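User: structure tokens for Extracellular solute-binding protein family 1, please.
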Amino acid sequence: MSKNKMIFWALWAVLLMIIVYWVSLLNSSSNKKKVSGPKEFNVWVVGDESAGFSDIISWFKQRYPSYENTNIKFTKFSSYEDYEKTLLTVMADNNSPDVFVVNNNWWDLLETKIQAIPNEVIDSLDFSKRFNKAFDDMILKEKDWDLVKTYLKWIPLGYETLWVFYNWKLVRNTPATWAELDEEIKNSEQSSDYITIWLWLGEKYIFKAPDILSVFLLQNWVNNYKDLKSNNAILAMKAYKSYATDPNNDITKFQDEMDSLGLTTVDMFVRWKIWMIIGYPSLVKEIELAIKRTSGTVNINKKFLRTSPLPQISSNKEDNSATNLVNYNYFALSKQTQNLAMGYDFMNYLSRQEAQEKYLKSFPAYLSAIRALEDQRKKESVSKDYEYVTYESFMDPSVELKSFTKWLKIEFDNYFNKNFSSKEEDNVVLEKWIKYIDCNKSHLIDGAGFEEQCN
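Assistant: Done. Predicted tokens:
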């Protein structure tokens, strides 16, 4: 073999060794990447069953195989009360779950505990194009010298709005304004058999009663518990309570029966005792349960259950005053997480249409957070048994969806349920309400003021 050939083959041998070496390095790097995910990743949810997230977990791992060996653990809390106190406690101990859900009506409480999501992870402009405009306030802008950086605070997977459910056999045209409803009640005949609508009392009787009052407050331009002592808040209170004082709408006529049998307004609605009730799409489930409780006695026919928009203060659409409450839980990444890279990947996946579809399949009572799925689901029924209760019924682009800031959701709702039937003047009740929230904030968040009893 000539000297030149020997040199040639020697160079090829060296080159081959280099190639083999780099391939082995790449394989090693790839293998390390596959096992780079943490052993456990914790997500806390409230209300929604943890089993409903199994599809999201499995598809997330398919999209991000480096986390295939990570145990993604969803912990479900049955009540907001347990969830709120447990979450605040573990955060005070710097032991937060990696991701947790927060209700939009008390997000201020945990804003400083949430890790903002940079544009490199989820593009905020793309987010605003794809998601319902109700979520535009999730985009956080922060000035950095002469540049304005945008971030996302959190990711929603669905939302709810309040609507009127009515018995079409009894009511053919529902009122567009509260004034029209007042006129309807005024002109109706007094009857021992039924009433038009039941408001005023708490959740013992009315499903989501504090949220219904929140709508009255929002429609009177009160959007924060701190403003409950304003004149507009007093007007909202009087309007809400007025539906208990009209002699043509005497809510006390059924109260003894309801107390003795443990019934709610939903039970009386399916028994044809109340013409209309207010609720979220999920109220359909309560209606179905109430029908079962009738044990086959008179109940609302499935074809007669209809929905209509929530009454407004004004019927003039040109003044852009139409308002409804939006309610949802969003997923937030904790600032205390030790798994930031996985947290960013997980939040990115939740923002995708694929994850949104899987969530709505598991929890069909929610409205779609992204625009593409809104159009797909518009004509579908919330429940297969009620063909006239469609998702479109709860979606009106002319109505502005707003959050009411409760700060502490449980304490806000509890005060309502315990004190709303108080004989005190409205302004006194409202001022005490503010003090009650502030007192609990001091105890639960600041860890101070324990010498004061919150009542």
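User: Anything notable?

Assistant: The chain has 15 helices and 15 strands.
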